[in-house]
Amino acid sequence: MSRVLRAVAALLLAASLGTNAGAASIEARSLSNGATAIVLDGPMVAEDEAKFEAVAGRTTDAVVFFSSNGGSLLAGLHIGAAIRQRNWGTVVLDKRRCASACALAWLGGARRYMGANALIGFHAAYTVERGTPSETGAGNALVGAYLNRLGLSDRAVIYITSAAPREMTWLTMQAAQNVGIEVTLLPGSLTVPGTAPARPAQDPSFTLRNRGGAAIHVFFATPAGLPNWGRDRLDGRGLAPEAAVRLRLPTGGNCVYDLRAEFADGHTENQRGMNTCLAGEVAMGGAAAATVTVFRLFNRGNAAISEVTARPPGAEKWSANHMRGGLIAPGGDRMLAIPPGGGCVFDLRVTFADGRTREKHAADLCKSPDQGVQ
Questions:
Q1: I need a surface site. Which of 53, 81, 138, 214 has the fewest CB within 10 A?
Q2: Which residues contact 223 (CB under 8 A, 6 or more apart)?
Q3: Do 206-290 and 293-373 have matching folds?
Q4: Residue ranges of domains in the chain
Q5: Tell me, what DSSP letter sits at residue 54?
Q6: Which H, E and C letters describe 120-171, residue by residue?
């Protein structure tokens, strides 16, 4: 068993992580196997940079455990850089959540570990103006520079930063492999003592939480890919802002659902391809789950590529141009990202500068992230 896994096992035997609703607690724990665990639990604020340095300065070798919904971007980047400088490992335990700034800090680990049911979520950097989150170019530039210093690929950088401020890309082992994020899955035997056993994998029931500023008027949860949304899962009761409700779904072996919330102020939010058996809780109107599909397109033709559009297989309408300006020269390639909510399989249409078009149907961009066209 590796040093990090021994530290995980020792920490779980010592005590489970708590749920910290205030500012993050950052503390070092000396474990029975002689290892040191630094545990960061709760919302991250700017002062946590100095707090982490103070705790980290008292040990020369540690493993850092995270359980946080995020917070200060600069704190996350600073803590992640400090971890990488010390060559320490990072861990998100089973059934724990590490999102936004927390996930960026977790990436700093020289060795990264996650539980099978851990939730590690990424989205673009943002600021809040008049109560509305909007992307910040300066923040995303800082994130991109940090990720490059960690040695992550262009594909990984796009994957990590493509989700909008109100969305979240939840990391899976398959996605990590596709984009080149090195992470080790913790053995299933390493669980938190004293907690309830994990839900059966075939139970798709979950807690719906309204993170928006308006009530959810109706909510739909439909097995992924069906042509209609079905019935209102709230049965006409609605869901007030910051309220939560447990939704029971049939246990027939299906775990993957398309979700849709219609809010009282008229806007809607969709989440497609959500594995609710693993999610436990789904937030709408705030940091909601989403999947960004990233692939590399190789131009094997004799003319430059000027436009790339996509659609779900068989759909009538094509998307907007995913190129976002510029051309892909003959023999060149470019990383492209399809916005969250579409899954993995798409029809692709490529337009060349000489007017020719080529189509690829039902391309699985998760299994085959490198696509060529001529």
A1: 138
A2: 254, 256, 257, 258
A3: yes
A4: 3-185, 206-290, 293-373
A5: H
A6: EEECCCEEEECCEEEECHHHHHHHHHHHHHCCCCHHHHHHHHCCCCCEEEEC
Instruction: Please calculate the CA angle 372-304-180 and round it to the nearest 5 degrees.
Output: 40
User: The domain 3-185 is classified under which CATH number: 3.90.226.10, 3.40.640.10, 3.40.50.300, 3.40.1160.10?
Assistant: 3.90.226.10
Question: Alpha carbon of 171 to those of 77, 292, 320: distances in Å?
Answer: 18, 10, 26
If you classify domain 206-290 with CATH, what class do you get? mainly beta
Binning the chain into helix, strand and coil, the percentages to the nearest 5 are: 20, 35, 45
The model's pTM = 0.59
Terminal CA-CA length for the chain = 49
Strand-pair category, 206-210 with 244-247: antiparallel
Amino acid identity of residue 206, one-letter, is F
What's the CA gap between 193 and 188, in Å, rounded? 13
Pair 43, 23: CB distance under 8 Å: yes
293-373 CATH pick, 2.60.40.2890, 2.60.120.10, 2.160.10.10, 1.20.1440.60: 2.60.40.2890
Non-local (6+) Cβ contacts of 310 within 8 A are: 318, 319, 322, 338, 342, 346, 347, 348, 349
Taking only the tens of pLDDT, the chain with its 374 residues reads 455 555 555 554 444 444 444 567 999 988 766 778 999 998 888 889 889 999 999 998 899 999 998 888 889 999 999 999 999 999 998 878 898 899 999 999 999 999 887 889 888 776 666 556 666 677 778 888 899 999 999 889 988 988 777 677 888 888 888 889 999 988 754 443 333 444 444 688 999 999 888 899 999 998 876 778 889 999 999 999 989 999 999 876 677 788 889 988 887 787 766 777 766 788 887 544 444 566 788 999 999 999 999 988 878 888 888 876 678 889 888 877 776 555 678 899 999 999 999 999 988 877 777 889 98
In sign, the C-alpha dihedral spanning 251, 252, 255, 257 is negative
Q: What is the SS3 assignment for 92?
A: strand
Give me the count of residues in the chain: 374
